[in-house]
Specification:
about 50% helix; alpha/beta; about 400 residues; nine-stranded mixed sheet; Rossmann fold; 2 domains
Length: about 400
């Protein structure tokens, strides 16, 4: 996997590389495996400096016209690395779109991730909740930070699609549910893993079904995940989802899953995030049969359905159309190969790889002068974007020039 140089660029200032094993010394000549960047921003809403973690798609710099959904991960000090890596893996296998991942570490978890609660609320040992967690209950202020400061800054700095996902675990899952039921327009999709719905005498269990039934268009998506052994929380979630099934919210696509096995509250987030992303983007991957046949009209129809679902234009990935073109080329179906590669350039005009691939098909068809134009365009784009594949494109262009030099003059 090619490491994106954009990982090394800051969002608001000083950037520190975040690697899998930051404490491991890197020997001379070795290259660290980079997951993302660390940075921070000053929040006027919260009155403090907030640490952040940023992961950009591996192709971010090589495809400078592409825009991406943004996934916000709470409790990022624990979950950023595994979620960002998972997103990259699922996108590379074409099960989900490439995404920008924004990790939001905690500074005061009780304060930020918990909704308001009754002054008379008590914990199991009888003490007042306000005494046990004196700073708790300010989820609405934290949401203002996310929606009024962080998200606008991310969307101004990076190439984003109008699609936000919020992923939270435990108190983070509680926060996600609170946002969905009170300010659903804040995000397009929510993944709530083992959400602490017992909070404030299980208020959300009583109020969420009605709130979700009242959701207005456009529709939202919710994935709930819990350990079947996580009593009594699992009983609360079963009660909530039973009511949801009765009400059938018209503008909510949702699913609730339980895990039975050797995992627990601490390890559940990895599995829950994976299942949640697969649910949110179910059907994203082009069926193998369609990939093999490479029918462009059917491919376009597949992506039209996805576009309608997410609310922004979704087009075939450059890598996908490239592979379709080469399947046709290997089968000596030159018109179909050229059509696929030309469509790739229409959708991804700044991809050096797309131009170089079209040149392969044009050269096979004997259209050498046209092929040379695309070889040279691939080289120019690679130079512009500092593409590490530049030597390959240059080699192809030089070889074609040499071939043309041996052709008889007309």
């Amino acid at each position: 996997m090619r490491l994106s140089r954009s990982f090394r660029r800051g969002l608001w200032g000083l950037v520190l590389l975040s690697v899998l094993h930051a404490s491991t010394a890197v020997a001379a000549g070795d290259t660290p495996i980079v997951i993302g960047t660390r940075t921070s921003m000053t929040s006027k809403v919260l009155g403090e400096e907030r640490p952040l973690m940023i992961h950009l798609p591996d192709s971010y710099e090589a495809a400078p016209t592409e825009r991406h959904p943004v996934l916000y991960v709470l409790d990022a000090e624990t979950h950023f690395v595994h979620v960002a890596s998972m997103v990259e893996f699922l996108a590379r296998t074409r099960h989900i779109p490439e995404m920008i991942v924004i990790g939001v570490p905690n500074t005061n978890r009780d304060r930020d991730l918990t909704p308001p609660f009754s002054k008379t609320e008590r914990v199991d040992d009888g003490r007042l909740l306000s005494e046990v967690a004196p700073t708790a209950g300010h989820a609405d202020t934290f949401l203002r930070f996310l929606t009024e400061e962080l998200a606008p800054s991310v969307e101004a700095r990076y190439r984003t699609q109008p699609y936000r996902i919020l992923v939270g675990h435990s108190h983070g899952g509680l926060f996600a549910m609170h946002v969905l039921t009170h300010k659903p327009e804040s995000f397009n999709a929510y993944v709530a893993i083992s959400p602490s719905v017992h909070w404030n005498s299980a208020e959300l269990v009583r109020t969420a079904p009605e709130a979700l039934a009242r959701l207005s268009a456009p529709s939202r998506a919710l994935y709930l995940y819990e350990d079947a052994e996580e009593a009594p929380n699992v009983a609360n979630l079963r009660a909530l989802t039973r009511e949801l099934r009765k009400r059938k919210p018209a503008n909510l696509t949702w699913r609730y899953d339980e895990l039975s096995g050797q995992d627990d509250h601490a390890s559940l987030p990895h599995i829950g995030a994976y299942e949640g992303l697969r649910f949110l983007f179910n059907g994203w991957k082009v069926p193998e049969e369609l990939q093999m046949t490479g029918n462009l009209a059917r491919l376009e129809a597949h992506y039209a359905v996805l576009s309608k679902r997410v609310g922004y234009p979704v087009v075939p990935q450059e890598r996908l159309l490239n592979s379709v073109g080469y399947r046709h080329l290997e089968g000596k179906r030159l018109p179909q190969a050229i059509a696929a590669f030309e469509r790739n350039i229409t959708l991804h005009p700044d991809s050096g790889n797309a131009h170089d691939s079209l040149a392969d098909a044009l050269e096979a068809a004997g259209r050498l002068q046209e092929a040379l134009k695309h070889r040279e365009r691939a080289v120019a784009l690679a130079c512009e974007h500092q593409d590490p594949d530049l030597p390959h494109y240059q080699k192809h262009a030089d070889a074609l020039r040499a071939r043309l030099a041996t052709q008889p003059a007309h």
